[in-house]
Specification:
This protein is of the alpha+beta class. It has three domains: about 120 residues, no CATH class; about 170 residues, Jelly Rolls (Sandwich); about 80 residues. The protein is built from five helices and 20 strands. Helix 2 packs across helix 5. The chain is globular and about 65 Å long. About 25% of the residues are buried. The protein binds heme C. Heme C binds next to helix 4.
Length: about 400
């Protein structure tokens, strides 16, 4: 009997020793899978978690950030949908990082380390076949910059299937977004001329309300950007690459299509010249599926969209669209501004049934994440898509 008890105690001790976690064996694999996409040089996170030396000083902060689920950033409510790019840590992973930090964050044996991830060169996530230099943009140290559009000549001399695109930001700390729009070439186009909306503002920077249907005057080159063009991709902190290859899909860009960059810079105290880049992969063979990107929006005129002063929980009008063709839905990207709190995406199928496919109840303005469905969702023709505030759930 006695001997048995001692043996048992011995076994327990062995288990406890096996649970002391090391960087090389236990922590690095988690960082490679869930953190290094942002935490490496030239990405949006301020520090690199590629190796022990640069990670070690952050051990305690990592524990706090993962235990509170501040990191990795993810805002889709659990229970609604499954997403391919969900980096949420499992309870076991959180436990590993926490215990490792608590036990002095040991490095462990180098031979236990997984081989490094082959992250693409010079910050590119795709390996572009074609790189376009975006126009240089002087960002002053201070002030408010209106969204500015700049058109550049087409890099596509013939009809081209693109299979991925990525914006490589030069000064990510100054970029709130860069939109990429394709515009059919017209002879009167003025290249490289900045253009922005003349928005009347008071001295605090607040815009005077527009009347219903009223458009802001444009300044700069004076060409109108609206019309037949659609937004094709946008860089926002956290999302820079769009890869259609995983679906066997591509976007067809007609020969001669000009590219419009819609830039939104936010001065941060230090003046800089931003010179970002746009990269594409292309294919000669027509892909099986065509990838289309659409933006739908709530009405934004001052009559329909006016948050009353001091109202912390105002319900905006919904954004709605109807699919006129059968398709598969793969990606969603809720976008709101500073006051945005929550949003959900609902489908109303032709037979009247409803499905919520994304619910973001704590929207973070600083995190413009995209949500990629784990499995493409078949959408019958005639299905309605509604982007709405979550408060309407109560009805
Ligand atoms: C989508 C990009 C992204 C991913 C993925 C990501 N981080 Fe971060 N992380 C950031 C950015 C940007 C910051 C700095 C801004 C901030 O603190 O919000 C940051 C800050 C941090 C901080 C400092 C927090 C603080 O309070 O000062 C820690 C620690 C951290 N990340 C740990 C992690 C860990 C661990 C993972 C993976 C489990 C991870 N991050 C995944 C982008 C990311």
């Amino acid at each position: 009997m006695n001997r048995f008890a001692i043996l048992l105690a011995f076994t327990l001790t062995t288990v406890a020793t096996a649970q002391s976690f090391t960087f090389n064996r236990d922590v690095l694999p988690i960082l490679q899978k869930n953190c290094q996409s942002c935490h490496r040089p030239n990405q949006i996170a301020p520090m690199s978690f590629l190796d022990y030396k640069s990670t070690r000083p952050w051990a305690k902060a990592m524990k706090t950030a993962v235990a509170s689920r501040k990191m990795p950033p993810w805002f889709a409510d659990p229970g609604v949908g499954h997403f391919r790019n969900d980096r949420t840590l499992s309870a076991e992973d959180i436990d590993v990082i926490s215990k490792w930090a608590d036990s002095g964050a040991p490095e462990g044996d180098a031979k236990d380390a997984p081989s490094p991830v082959a992250w693409p060169d010079k910050g590119w996530q795709i390996k572009p076949d074609l790189i376009v230099d975006m126009p240089e943009f002087k960002v002053p140290a201070k002030g408010l910059l209106e969204w500015t559009d700049i058109t550049i000549p087409s890099p596509f001399k013939e009809d081209t299937w693109i299979t991925s695109m990525e914006i490589l930001p030069d000064h990510p700390e100054l970029i709130h977004h860069i939109g990429v729009l394709f515009r059919p070439h017209t002879p009167d186009v003025q290249y490289f001329k900045p253009e922005w909306a003349m928005i009347p503002r008071d001295e605090s920077g607040s815009a005077y309300p527009k009347k219903k249907g009223e458009r802001a005057q444009t300044a700069g080159s004076g060409q109108q950007r609206v019309g037949t063009i659609t937004i094709e991709a946008s860089y926002v902190p956290g999302i820079s690459a769009f890869d259609y290859r995983i679906y066997g899909a591509g976007k067809l860009v007609p020969a001669g299509t000009d590219i419009v960059f819609s830039m939104h810079y936010t001065p941060n105290g230090t003046a800089a010249i931003d010179h970002s880049k746009l990269g594409f992969t292309i294919t000669k063979k027509e892909p099986a599926l065509r990838y289309m990107t659409f933006a739908i929006s709530s009405p934004s005129d001052a009559e329909s969209f006016a948050i009353p002063p001091n109202q912390p929980n105002w319900e905006s009008p919904t954004a709605e669209a109807t699919f006129t063709e059968e398709c598969e839905l793969v990606w969603m990207q809720p976008h709101m501004h500073l006051r945005g709190k929550d949003m959900s995406y609902d489908l109303i199928f032709p037979d009247g049934s409803k499905q919520t496919i994304l619910s973001v109840s704590h929207y973070g303005f600083n995190w413009q994440l995209g949500y990629e469905l784990a499995k493409p969702l078949k959408i019958p023709k005639g299905t309605k898509l509604i982007g709405r505030p979550l408060r309407q759930f109560a009805e």
